[in-house]
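Q: What residues go here?
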């Protein structure tokens, strides 16, 4: 789907999702397999919305994992009441290995004019 760009609002919901006990040593090196993930949080949010407002969440894109730099995120897209996209982000962890950016420095040669 064409979701990249400035056409949506993004919310980091990591602090709303209790995936680790902060006293637990595993919290510092958070695994990408959290105990409570974005999908489960959205299901709970949907249940709460149904109870309070009688309306369900309109999901545009179900949660998927994305690697941004060395950080691993779960991301999903919802529609708000007006149909605008809202991106939800949940930080899942950090990769131990370095991740290259994939860019090859230009040597100043090779362009066809």
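A:
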């Amino acid at each position: 789907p064409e979701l990249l760009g400035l056409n949506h609002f993004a919310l980091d919901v990591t602090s709303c999702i209790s995936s680790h006990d902060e006293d637990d040593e595993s919290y510092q090196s958070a695994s990408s397999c959290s105990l409570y993930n974005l999908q489960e949080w959205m299901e709970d949010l949907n249940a709460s919305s149904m109870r309070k407002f009688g309306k369900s969440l309109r999901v545009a894109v179900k949660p998927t994992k994305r690697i941004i730099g060395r950080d691993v995120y779960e991301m999903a897209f919802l529609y708000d009441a007006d149909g605008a996209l809202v991106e939800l982000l949940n930080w899942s962890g950090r990769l131990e290995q370095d991740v290259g950016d994939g860019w090859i420095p230009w040597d100043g040669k090779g362009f066809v004019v």
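A: Context that may help when evaluating the design: The first strand starts at residue 8 and ends at 12. Residues 19-33 have pLDDT under 50 and may be disordered.
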